Amino acid sequence: MITLWIDDKQYEAAEGRTILQVALDNGIQIPHLCYHENLSSFGGCRLCQVEVTRDNKTVLTTSCTYPAMDGIIVRTDTPKVKKARRFVMELLLSLAPDAPKIQDLAQEMGIVATRFTPAGDNCIRCGLCVRACDELVGAHAITFAHRGAQRMVEPPFAEEAENCIGCGTCVQICPTGFISMEEQGMERKIGKWKRTLKMKACAKCGRPFISFAEIAFIMDKVKNPPPADWFDYCSDCR
Ligand code: SF4
Ligand code: FES
């Protein structure tokens, strides 16, 4: 265990935790968008910035990537922190001005407008979709492409995401609604990944509930695959 200070209070934490995790574990709210407890840290949105003093040096840093260390002093609410977060939030708002989650977070921080020209496509480049697809699903269907202002999430070579199994994890985890999934008859379409998947219907209620690609993926990946008829019924009818 290590001991650190956050906003003048002492906390104990297990080694290996980040400042953001220790803060959240102890009910200290630090705004964050690209952090997810089940995914690796990315440090992409820069909303979770705090000031950290270590060996008499103070730096402004992202709390989701900075390890909680013995003796460090963390401040979550200094004028410098507030200014940095405000700048970031306005930038995010310009990238995804219509996303309710971004609007709500901005409002919580007292921001109602952005000084930047709205120029976004509604994707804030948080990388949650890419990491979820890599680390939770293991499908590796999408990736970041290009650099700087051109950086975006895409299927490899901007062609159909052939590894996409249509599980919808990216759709669920995306905080802006950039990715959407449409059910059309016996097909599921994820337009952003140029992917159309054939769906299997539940033998009882007839609802298309899982793609054949996802069934094949599960049967191939899991150590003890379920019996083949497991996928005959949807979770409601099983
Ligand atoms: S598509 Fe959504 S989850 Fe993926 S990087 Fe953009 S905002 Fe984040
Ligand atoms: S949550 Fe830390 S940089 Fe996004």
Write the layout of secondary structure elements.
Layout: E1 2-6, E2 9-13, H1 19-25, E3 49-54, E4 57-62, E5 73-75, H2 79-95, H3 100-108, H4 128-137, E6 143-145, E7 152-154, H5 169-173, E8 182-184, E9 187-190, E10 195-201, E11 208-211, H6 212-221
Parallel strand pairs: 1-5
Antiparallel strand pairs: 1-2, 3-4, 3-5, 6-7, 8-9, 9-10, 10-11
Bound molecules: iron/sulfur cluster and FE2/S2 (inorganic) cluster (FES).
Secondary-structure element string: EEHEEEHHHEEHEEEEH
The backbone outline, from C-alpha atoms, is globular
Strand content: 15-25%
Tally of domains: 2
Number of E-state strands: 11
Radius of gyration: 21 Å
Low-confidence stretches: none
Q: What is the CATH third-level topology name of the largest domain?
A: Ubiquitin-like (UB roll)
**N- to C-terminal distance:** 45 Å
Provide key terms for this protein.
single chain; 238 residues; alpha+beta; Ubiquitin-like (UB roll); Alpha-Beta Plaits; 2 domains; five-stranded mixed beta sheet; four-stranded antiparallel beta sheet; globular; binds iron/sulfur cluster; binds FE2/S2 (inorganic) cluster
Description:
The chain has 238 residues and is α+β, with helices and mostly antiparallel strands. The protein folds into two domains: 107 residues, Ubiquitin-like (UB roll); 105 residues, Alpha-Beta Plaits (2-Layer Sandwich), CATH 3.30.70. 24% of the residues lie in helices and 21% in strands. The protein has six helices and eleven strands. Strands 2-1-5-3-4 form a five-stranded mixed beta sheet, with helices on both faces. A hairpin with a 2-residue loop joins strand 1 and strand 2. Helix 2 runs antiparallel to helix 3. The longest helix has 17 residues. The protein is globular, with a radius of gyration of 21 Å. It starts with a strand and ends in a 17-residue tail after the last helix. The model has no long low-confidence stretch (mean pLDDT 95). It binds iron/sulfur cluster and FE2/S2 (inorganic) cluster. Iron/sulfur cluster binds next to helix 4.
